[in-house]
Amino acid sequence: MTDPLARLQELQAGDLPVHGGRTLAYVYDGGDAEVDRIGREAVAAYAGSNALDPTAFPSLLTMENELVGFACSLLDAPDGAVGTVTSGGTESVLLAVQGARDARPDVREPSMVIPSTAHAAFHKAAHYFGVRAVVVPVGPDFRADAAAMAAAIDDTTVLVVASAPSYAHGVVDPVTEVAAAAAEAGIRCHVDACIGGWVLPYAARLGRDVPAWTFAVEGVTSISVDTHKYAYAPKGTSLLLHRSSALRHPQLFASADWPGYTMLNQTMQSTRSGGPIAGTWAVVSAIGDAGYLRLAGEVFEAVDRIVELVSATPALRLVVPPDSTLVALTTDGSCDPFTLTDELVSRGWYVQPQLAYADQPASVHLSVSAATLRHLPDFATALADSVAAARAAGPVSVDEGVVSFIEALDPAALGDDDFDGLLAASGLVGAGADGSLDLPTRMAPVNAMLDVASPPMREALLVAFLDRLSRPVRPATEVPA
């Protein structure tokens, strides 16, 4: 009989490490093994529980209400504020948009005004809910242009959005001005603080210069904040807070028009595993306010030291000085961000490449965790060696003929065979000797090719790539009928 746990360990060996502070994307590590143990055990204890019905599992309701209460205190929420535990930042954003839309049934073709740096989850919400995204270019400092956003508000606008901080660049939008424009027009203002919500309040307490963005700002009606990020909780939870229960009410869903139980939901989900809720509650309880203040001090010390390293390296520059825990850097003409990314990954530091957008060049993105601080001497060495290797290799180039070919393609007119050929030509996928998917070990040539493609072509290629990745693996022996 196969040991499934041994198989899990074998499979997990090929994954990025979630601890150790060296994975600077996707995961957030507080660096405390005991807190991690508490979180894992709480998840396991509640893995079979279901938050669908709070009367059936009142312990989960208690935990959710306490988590929301902690966040309300952290984010200057007034008396009467309410909140919901969601599955992640994207669901929090989706619900904020859905609630704003459904609060205005009088608007037949609703829209929302967002800065060009708003998270892609808002575009997903636009796609899902038919709320047109009016995208407003940001200023040269990569922050929302409050005056331009105010000018973009019209009779169809149901929501205005700001970020604290924006994901790509790590800077906080001028929330005070954006929220004031929304309030003057009688429109909701959502602050996407999925990244910064659990760390920026502590940054302010540490004396760092943090622009105003919480419920203390008049006109802010809702805030999303992820607990699986800088609350260092297990994956699978975020919070969506509203200034009042009346503002949250359109988010809630009920359906009695069928012969089963009356469906009643706060979120996009019906069944909700109790595991992530319990794991988050346990971690937040274990770390506590003082612990988060200490962790914030560690992560910002790490950010400051990384900024100093980048500033002291001639081949590198900051895209913009960060307000939070996200650092975006780019390179000069002696090397390129994609090769630098590969070199850092080969030295045990996972960083995330960001493709060029509009007039912004490609960059390297770092989501810094508290656990990163103790490894910064190694990071400094890896960064210096990676820059040297990238400069020696030279920038990755794409043949001009290939560029012209890609620019001439219409992604809407391509079929599956066309995409299979493009994926193979780009190096995104290949066939292994056994017919399995063979992924590239170095991504610089792939990213360079994607970088010259238009956003619609990138989307089409990567959707085809995801489809190619996600194919069934049948058991070695057929399951008996």
List the helices and strands and how they pair.
Blueprint: H1 4-12, H2 33-45, H3 58-74, E1 82-86, H4 89-102, E2 111-115, H5 121-129, E3 132-136, H6 146-152, E4 157-163, H7 175-184, E5 188-192, H8 200-205, E6 222-226, E7 238-242, H9 245-248, E8 253-255, E9 263-265, H10 274-311, E10 316-318, E11 326-331, H11 337-346, E12 352-354, E13 363-367, H12 376-393, H13 400-408, H14 416-426, E14 430-431, E15 437-438, H15 444-452, H16 455-469
Parallel strand pairs: 2-3, 2-4, 4-5, 5-6
Antiparallel strand pairs: 1-7, 6-7, 8-9, 10-11, 11-13, 12-13, 14-15
From the spread of the alpha carbons, the general shape counts as globular
For the record, the CATH class of the largest domain is Alpha Beta
Q: In CATH terms, what is the fold-level topology of the largest domain?
A: Aspartate Aminotransferase, domain 2
Task: Bin the helical content.
Answer: 40-55%
Cross-sheet strand order for the largest sheet: 1-7-6-5-4-2-3
Total number of distinct structural domains: 3
Terminal Cα separation, in Å?
Answer: 21 Å
Oligomer: single chain
What CATH architecture of the largest domain would you give?
3-Layer(aba) Sandwich
Number of helices: 16
- Structural class designation: alpha/beta
State the CATH superfamily name of the largest domain: Type I PLP-dependent aspartate aminotransferase-like (Major domain)
Q: What portion of the residues fall into strands of 2 or more residues?
A: 5-15%
